[in-house]
Specification:
elongated, 4 helices, mainly alpha
């Protein structure tokens, strides 16, 4: 991908730094989603599921997913800001294949 986008070593360094800055938050949000989904499955598999608790957990799963989506989008926008317009066009072209 580095060759396809023709990233400079400076861009690569900046992108690596951005990844390192965001890695912890992305991982934490991903783990939160996994935990919320596991709790939802436990509630759903209960011999006599509590509908109110299950729906409340569904809301928590949706919120956790939304937070992960926001964090991922923020990270990707930071990465994109490191690219020039030609690199963005190459990225979009390679993503559409």
């Amino acid at each position: 991908m580095i060759k396809t986008l023709k990233l400079s070593s400076e861009q690569q360094s900046h992108m690596d730094a951005i990844f390192e800055q965001n890695r912890g938050a992305l991982l934490a949000r991903f783990q939160t989603v996994q935990q919320a989904e596991a709790q939802m499955q436990d509630l759903a598999r209960s011999p006599s599921p509590d509908e109110g608790a299950l729906f409340a957990q569904i809301d928590r799963v949706a919120q956790a997913r939304a937070e992960l989506d926001k964090a991922t989008t923020h990270y990707l926008l930071q990465i994109r800001k490191e690219m020039d317009s030609d690199q963005i066009k190459r990225l979009e072209k390679s993503s559409s294949r």
